[in-house]
């Protein structure tokens, strides 16, 4: 888990002004620069220019007092204890993702599936419910439909662009709204801004799987109101089919974490009562509270951590992401147009075509012409 060090990075390449949380001067990073330099140690121990692999399960402490401090409930600085809940290589990857997605904190996990399920488990308990887009990845649908149900959590599936339907499903036990920037496999585009307004009106987070918008290259959900962003880093981020990984990013866009009634776990409270059972993370850490809990209470104890060599591979993958995405979109556009003109092709589903049902939304979210077509031969 990390705190944001870099300045804002625009997905289209323009830089914006925002003070850094570090003691260094504000960084002004073009997106193509951030994919290479964000997250690097500014004072590397050996002068290295790339992300090194810290392939160590555990880390030494100079004294027993230092070890005791490292295991404290709310460490005030990043300390390396055991790689199941933190590693310097993973930290570099997380920093880079925070910069690219305009967030405040991140936690890397073993896969996109691990990231989604960990977020769901951390926010909802027995008797709660969640609102989920019915245009989600098959594995995600399975997690909400079967696994979360076995944990006593009801998943209320709907078209999340039907805002009245979303409002009708919302009640006092709803813990979050979940959607995908672009749904897999139909390329259904989420209308994030009004959905975020509904979530924030209930003081719950809008959770967005942004895998298909490629680490902020095509769309930064945070700018449309998303509170928690999830990526299967295996896809566009890694880019080469060699590495599994996932990442969760907190954007700090709303005050959902201050909601004691819905999220007592962030306030040291026991569910269903006012009994204090632990540290009030929100008081101590503000918008970083949720990521602290996700790391120390869930990633640590489920063992769903990302391996350090995988984190390095994902950093390497990010370095070529803008080049790959540009080539892929150009190729996809040419291929879609060629297929549509072919006599043996029945139909082509492509966001770049005006007959795609979500073409207007894709254009609104600056996601036009971003993905390969879905076609069927006659």
UniProtKB/TrEMBL annotation:
<dbReference type="InterPro" id="IPR000277">
    <property type="entry name" value="Cys/Met-Metab_PyrdxlP-dep_enz"/>
</dbReference>
<dbReference type="GO" id="GO:0004124">
    <property type="term" value="F:cysteine synthase activity"/>
</dbReference>
<dbReference type="GO" id="GO:0071269">
    <property type="term" value="P:L-homocysteine biosynthetic process"/>
</dbReference>
<dbReference type="GO" id="GO:0005737">
    <property type="term" value="C:cytoplasm"/>
</dbReference>
<dbReference type="InterPro" id="IPR015424">
    <property type="entry name" value="PyrdxlP-dep_Trfase"/>
</dbReference>
<keyword id="KW-0663">Pyridoxal phosphate</keyword>
<dbReference type="InterPro" id="IPR054542">
    <property type="entry name" value="Cys_met_metab_PP"/>
</dbReference>
<dbReference type="GO" id="GO:0019346">
    <property type="term" value="P:transsulfuration"/>
</dbReference>
<dbReference type="GO" id="GO:0006535">
    <property type="term" value="P:cysteine biosynthetic process from serine"/>
</dbReference>
<dbReference type="Pfam" id="PF01053">
    <property type="entry name" value="Cys_Met_Meta_PP"/>
</dbReference>
<dbReference type="InterPro" id="IPR015422">
    <property type="entry name" value="PyrdxlP-dep_Trfase_small"/>
</dbReference>
<dbReference type="GO" id="GO:0003961">
    <property type="term" value="F:O-acetylhomoserine aminocarboxypropyltransferase activity"/>
</dbReference>
<dbReference type="InterPro" id="IPR015421">
    <property type="entry name" value="PyrdxlP-dep_Trfase_major"/>
</dbReference>
<feature type="region of interest" description="Disordered">
    <location>
        <begin position="1"/>
        <end position="23"/>
    </location>
</feature>
<dbReference type="GO" id="GO:0030170">
    <property type="term" value="F:pyridoxal phosphate binding"/>
</dbReference>
<dbReference type="InterPro" id="IPR006235">
    <property type="entry name" value="OAc-hSer/O-AcSer_sulfhydrylase"/>
</dbReference>
<feature type="compositionally biased region" description="Basic and acidic residues">
    <location>
        <begin position="1"/>
        <end position="15"/>
    </location>
</feature>
<feature type="modified residue" description="N6-(pyridoxal phosphate)lysine">
    <location>
        <position position="235"/>
    </location>
</feature>
<comment type="similarity">
    <text>Belongs to the trans-sulfuration enzymes family.</text>
</comment>
<protein>
    <recommendedName>
        <fullName>O-acetylhomoserine (Thiol)-lyase</fullName>
    </recommendedName>
</protein>
<keyword id="KW-0808">Transferase</keyword>
């Amino acid at each position: 888990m990390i705190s944001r060090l870099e300045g804002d990075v625009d997905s289209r390449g323009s830089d914006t002004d925002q003070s850094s949380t570090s003691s260094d001067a504000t960084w002004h990073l073009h997106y193509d620069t951030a994919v290479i330099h964000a997250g690097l140690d500014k004072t590397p121990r050996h002068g290295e220019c790339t992300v090194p692999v810290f392939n160590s399960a555990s880390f030494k402490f100079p004294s027993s007092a230092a070890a005791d401090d490292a295991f404290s409930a709310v460490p005030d600085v990043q300390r390396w204890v055991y790689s199941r809940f933190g590693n310097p290589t993973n930290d570099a990857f997380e920093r880079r993702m925070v910069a690219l997605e305009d967030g405040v904190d991140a936690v890397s996990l073993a896969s996109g599936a691990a990231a989604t399920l960990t977020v769901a488990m951390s926010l909802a308990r027995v008797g709660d419910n969640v609102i989920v887009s019915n245009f989600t990845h098959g594995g995600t649908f399975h997690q909400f439909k079967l696994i979360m149900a076995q944990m006593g959590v009801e998943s209320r599936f709907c078209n999340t662009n039907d805002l009245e339907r979303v409002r009708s499903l919302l009640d006092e036990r709803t813990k979050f709204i979940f959607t995908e920037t672009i749904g897999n496999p139909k390329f259904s585009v989420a209308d994030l801004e009004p959905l975020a307004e509904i979530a924030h009106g209930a003081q719950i987070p809008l959770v967005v799987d942004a895998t298909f918008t490629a680490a902020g290259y095509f769309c930064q959900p945070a700018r449309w109101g998303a509170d928690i962003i999830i990526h299967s880093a295996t896809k566009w981020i890694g880019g080469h089919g060699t590495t599994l990984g996932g990442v969760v990013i907190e954007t700090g866009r709303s005050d959902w974490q201050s909601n004691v009634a819905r999220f007592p776990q962030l306030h040291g409270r026991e569910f269903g009562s006012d009994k204090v059972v632990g540290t009030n993370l929100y008081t101590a850490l503000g918008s970083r509270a949720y990521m602290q809990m996700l790391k120390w209470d869930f990633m640590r104890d489920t063992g769903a951590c990302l391996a350090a060599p995988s984190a390095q591979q994902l950093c390497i993958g990010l370095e070529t992401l803008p080049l790959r995405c540009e080539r892929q979109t150009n190729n996809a556009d040419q291929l879609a147009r060629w297929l549509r003109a072919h006599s043996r092709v029945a139909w082509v589903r492509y966001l770049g075509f005006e007959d795609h049902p979500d073409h207007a939304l894709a254009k609104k979210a600056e996601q036009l012409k971003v993905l390969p077509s879905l076609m069927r031969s006659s």
